[in-house]
Amino acid sequence: MPASLPPAVMELQTELSRMPGIGKKSALRMALYLLKSDTEEVKRLAQAVINVKEKVKVCSICGFLSDRDPCPICTDPKRDASTVLVVEEPGDVIALERGGIFRGKYHVLGGVLAPLDGVGPEDLRIRELDKRISDEPIEELVVATNPTPEGEQTAMYLSKLFGQRVKVSRIARGIPVGSDLEHADDLTLVRAFEGRSKL
Questions:
Q1: Which domains does the chain have, with CATH numbers?
Q2: Cα-flanking dihedrals φ and ψ of residue 4, to 5°?
């Protein structure tokens, strides 16, 4: 009969494997790493997990993460309040802010429409977006959902829902820099052609 791990290690593996992208093997490696780590290091990790749960909030306006509500992006008077970039998740805001190319405001939906998975409009932050369009000087929504079937469906839904009240546009998609045309899928090539611009 093979040797079994102590129940505490198995419990930690189970809890770690609940995280997205962490399978049972990765969770076990992490659990064993923590087991051999210095006690102070493990305490710092545990405290960081507690801190993030206690101190980080979801902005009541845009849905981004912050230690205050409303978040610094929503309260920044230098940002263009007339343009709101609609994204799926908080990580999308981080990526866009890192590039420094967008100076408007954001709205995080918290996912995309996925009827087969039971995710409908009521499960996303669409009501909050509707309220923002009524209350704020928004002139344009730039939809930046991912180019997946669900992302495309969500973009079309938002366009139909809000297109009579504000301008609704979609970010351009196309061939990534440094890649070859022969490796691009058909939809990417179509989008790249449709989004062409004058040189």
A1: 7-55 (1.10.8.420), 73-193 (3.40.1360.10)
A2: -110, 150
Give the ranges where the chain is alpha helix by DSSP (H). Answer: 7-16, 24-36, 39-55, 72-75, 90-99, 126-135, 149-162, 186-194
Do 179 and 151 form a contact (C-beta atoms < 8 A)?
A: no
What's the predicted TM-score (pTM) here?
A: 0.81
CA distance 161 to 142: 14
Q: Write out the two tokens for 125.
A: 């932050």
Under a CB-based contact definition with an 8 Å cutoff, are residues 58 and 74 in contact? no
Phi, then psi, of 2 in degrees rounded to 5: -70, 155
Quick one: what percent of the chain has pLDDT higher than 90? 78
Edge-to-edge strand list for the sheet holding 140-143:
104-108, 80-87, 140-143, 167-170
- Give the whole-angstrom CA distance, residue 34 versus residue 44: 11
Placement of tokens 């230690």 in the chain:
67
Residue 148 CB neighbour total at 10 angstroms: 12
pLDDT in tens, 78-97: 999 999 999 999 999 999 99
- Considering only CA atoms, which of 197, 153, 158, 150 is closest in space to residue 174? 197
